[in-house]
Specification:
By secondary structure, the chain is an alpha/beta fold. The chain is built from 22 helices and 16 strands. Helix 5 crosses helix 6 and helix 21 packs across helix 22.
Length: 504
């Protein structure tokens, strides 16, 4: 007797359909799994046997062979337990085989037959919807998978409930989607005292998703400013929320099936490895850059990161994707994020104070910031110096705008960009525009062209720097509700590209 169940294998954030074929044939008793399984999948036979024992189901005194097809696709993860168990039950004629052919199943089996949650329920639901099948997942994953409304999602708590459903003894109800997570912003931009120029740069960065680098002494509010950036970002669109949630689902980070429309904010420590930042490791999992997709990636103490880790971000900054290549895996992860970085002007951070600076000043400043490569530095649209706030100013009442008022301007600028790029699916914000599209959205009059030509000569702009200035100027004009880029908009964009330490 042979039977087929269906599940998925993950290729990056994409779920690919897998046939679980089971054959029960005469021969010496045994239970074998073939089809390029890893260790966790091979161990499924012991969990399946124990779960069957808990349900008083005896394994047959025959040869049981399970094949995972396609055989050349690597299979990893404990979510193969449930489809393997169902395929065996169908081969033993305990559950009807025709019922399994209409659904996709995934879940980890406990030794007593309970179903434990697994990662990747959301992309699995999308794969099931594309193939016109129902989805069977553990109870804890039901709320997450049910967000894909076009697929019936069943969420049993145990293998016994699955058997009762398939045999029509106790049909399972459809799972309901989880609650939409509400944004919680405890920090307000109004709490930052002074730093008007940094606040303005933060607003421009949020409006057009322009990468921002802040350099200043310790305690100058760099981290304080960065952590308040999510409070001025607009909510994610439904498409963006789904894209982000799929990545978090694969990484096992969706709490209680709740999908959030709040832009993610990731802050890896400067000791983060290459695999932790861009993805990889033994199973080629998504890294911090992908987890920050459609949100903010904040790198505090940027020069303290390994240089190769920083330079690894150059590709996703340009393309919005990360390609992880391993001997047995070639995976693409989306990684379109807003990069915000902060750094001290030197290792000791006191280069501006001759009385407190180290003995290597001022050479230490150039050596320290020199850890950031030129090509990486060129990819920051906005580069600002954040001065120290005077102690006497800290006791004064805060006079800056609140996050709510800044967020309203950012939302209005984003709305202009949404309408502008409605016919360009590859671009969503000004930072995505390039080539002919950038020329269309950022035309310059004669005065602006003369100013930009002069600045390019004096600053030694690269073509990349030239285009990034145009994008920033377009965003500044959007914040001003101006249909065209005027000279003040371009001048402000140029001011954020001046070399550090240069007064003009």
């Amino acid at each position: 007797m042979a039977a087929i169940a269906y599940t998925v294998a993950f290729d990056g954030v994409e779920a690919r359909l897998v046939e679980v074929q089971c054959s029960v044939s005469p021969g010496l008793p045994g239970f074998g799994i073939v089809g390029l399984p890893d260790k966790s999948v091979s161990e499924a036979r012991e969990r399946v046997k124990a779960a069957f024992g808990a349900l008083s189901i005896a394994m047959p005194s025959r040869r049981v062979t399970v094949n995972l097809s396609p055989a050349d696709l690597p299979k990893e993860g404990s979510h193969f337990d449930l489809p393997i168990a169902l395929a065996v039950l169908a081969a033993l004629e305990i559950v009807p085989a025709e019922s399994l052919e209409r659904m996709v199943a995934l879940g980890e089996l406990a030794l007593d037959g309970r179903l434990s949650p697994v990662a990747g329920a959301l992309p699995a639901a999308m794969a099931a919807a594309e193939d016109g099948r129902a989805l069977l997942v553990p109870r804890a994953c039901g709320a997450e998978a049910a967000w894909v409304g076009t697929v019936p999602v069943l969420a049993p708590q145990s293998l016994r409930e699955v058997v009762d459903h398939l045999t029509d003894r106790a049909p399972l109800p459809r799972a309901a989607p989880g609650e939409l997570a509400e944004p919680v912003f405890g920090a307000d931009l109004a709490e930052v005292k002074g730093q008007e120029r940094a606040r303005r740069a933060l607003e421009i960065a949020a409006a057009g998703r322009h990468h921002l680098l802040m350099i200043g002494p310790p305690g100058a509010s760099k981290s304080m400013l960065a952590t308040r950036l999510p409070g001025i970002l607009p909510p994610l669109s439904p498409q963006e929320a789904l894209e982000t949630s799929v990545i978090h689902s694969v990484a096992g980070l969706l709490a209680e099936g709740g999908i959030s429309r709040t832009a993610p904010f990731r802050q890896p420590h400067h000791t983060a490895s290459m695999a932790a930042m861009v993805g990889g490791g033994r199973n080629a999992r998504p890294g911090q850059a992908s987890l920050a997709h459609n949100g903010v990636l904040f790198l505090d103490e940027l020069p303290e990161f390994e240089r190769r880790v920083i330079d690894a971000l150059r590709e996703p900054i340009e393309t919005g994707e990360i390609h992880v290549s391993r001997a047995n895996a070639h995976i693409r992860y989306p990684a379109r994020f807003l990069l915000v970085a902060a750094a001290n002007p030197c290792r000791c951070g006191e280069i501006a104070d001759a009385a407190r600076a180290c003995s290597k000043a001022p050479r230490c400043g150039a050596d320290y910031l020199g850890r950031i490569s030129g090509p990486m530095m060129d990819r920051f649209d906005l580069r600002i110096e954040v001065p120290q706030v005077a102690i006497e100013d800290l006791g004064l009442p805060a006079t800056g705008e609140s996050s709510a008022s800044v967020a309203a301007r950012v939302a209005a600028a984003r709305a202009l960009q949404t309408a502008r790029f409605a016919d360009h699916p590859a671009a969503r914000v000004n930072a995505d525009a390039s080539g002919r599209l950038l020329e269309e959205i950022a035309p310059l009059d004669g005065e602006c062209r003369s100013l930009l030509a002069l600045a390019a000569e004096r600053l030694g702009l690269t073509p990349r720097g030239y285009h990034r200035i145009l994008r920033s100027a377009r965003t500044i004009a959007d914040l001003d509700a101006s249909p065209a880029i005027r000279q003040p908009h371009l001048a402000e964009a140029l001011s954020y590209r001046l070399p550090f330490g240069r007064p003009d």
